[in-house]
Amino acid sequence: MGIPISQMWTVSTYVLKQKFIKRNKHYPLVLMLEPLFRCNLSCAGCGKIQYPGHILKRQLSVDECVQAVEECGAPIVSIPGGEPLLHPDMPKIVEELVKRRKYIYLCTNAILLEKKIEEYKPSKYLTFSIHMDGLEEEHDEAVCRDGIYKKAIAGIKVALDKGFRVTTNTTLFLGAKPDRTRMFFDEMTKLGVEGMMLSPGYSYSKAPDQESFLQRKETYKLFREIFHSPNKSWKFNHSPLFLEFLAGHRHYECTPWGNPTYNIFGWQKPCYLLQKGYTKTFKELIDETNWDEYGQKSNNPECANCMVHSGHEATTVDHTFGTLGGFLGTVRATFLGPKIPKPESQKIPSVSGGK
Ligand code: SF4
């Protein structure tokens, strides 16, 4: 697994405390802090950059970011966007969160990384999570601009040379080729990234390309083909149970409160992907959202095919630390590799954990 022991320790002690001492069912694991929506790319599968100009100009201040992080209390803060490196105060935001010992995943397309890297200091708390949707041809097509893959590779090399933690962050859509994805994993592994993150794309209603989103069975098939006889040197920045979920060895219900989202509108109900209103405080988000209306079990059509990382990985972590079966499954998958059904398998998994 591509996650340092100190981070695993922080997460495991936090989860155990929430579950068994505080008896808190709706605890946050990763805060999705969106300080701005503007970006220097216009990707076809993105649901964030279609806001009008006056919204794209707005951004959270350093104080607003710090307050949201403290209010939420999650040990991990993921900073997506938009493109966070466009925020003039991002180095200060990172510095304040590092002081608070939060593990930060600063998600970037890396276009500005070489230019801005001197504004950041290497730390075990800071990871640059580089958006890479495949090899050069696939990535440049996904981001709708030539030359961005090369730019991102240059950014990864500079960040690694300077001693930063670096992961990649890949979203896969219908038509992804398993062989090419495996070659992409080999390339990233050769570069020396700490781990790779994966997610099937979510069918944002605002995304310009509505034809390329995966249905649940297509997701299983794709990941079964990608993960069968894996290269042993691949490292993923995920719970191994999440990889088993993607490949349909096991099913998890979504726990959207595990990855709450804060942005210029407030706390977003119920998750990073849907916008069913906003609350002023994190407590209101937790108390006022009807969580039963979301996830596959709810029969909400907007959740039917959703298998994204931000909705489901918190469930796998909760299962690991909340049940003996989840714990033993994680230990087994960590040492022996995740269980992946054969590509031709028609298996539909039953529920392992969740609501
Ligand atoms: S299943 Fe997906 S869309 Fe539905 S609440 Fe969970 S993360 Fe959001």
UniProtKB/TrEMBL annotation:
Entries under NCBIfam families matching the protein: HpnH (TIGR03470)
Instruction: Write the protein's name.
Output: Hopanoid biosynthesis associated radical SAMprotein HpnH
The coenzyme or cofactor needed here is: [4Fe-4S] cluster
Q: Report the source organism.
A: Uabimicrobium amorphum
Signal peptide location = none
User: What SUPFAM superfamilies does this protein's entry cite?
Assistant: Radical SAM enzymes (SSF102114)
Where do the Radical SAM core domain residues begin and end?
25-237
**In its keyword annotation, does this UniProt entry include Nucleus?**
no
